[in-house]
Amino acid sequence: MTQGKLEKEILTTASELGTLLTGYHFDEAWTVAGRLNSLFKSEDVIQLPADQLESIHSELKGYYATNAEVNRLQKRLVAKGHKLQELSTK
Asked: Which of 19, 36, 83, 86 is the 20 to 30 A CA-CA neighbour of 50?
């Protein structure tokens, strides 16, 4: 990817992820987060201000941590549902 294009792609993808999250489009956000993560893993040097780049990367890491927590909580809710089903059939 050429210089300039990578930076624009990172900023555009970060903005898209933000829009999806604030619009409650969490399934689509997962895909966009993966795309943003792969841009960070590029072999090319990213020419963005260090603080901006670090902040975007930090927010992305926070997104993944929060998503993992939500998944754990959803599993707990499913377990509660199974228990309620079990208790209602006794």
From this structure: 19
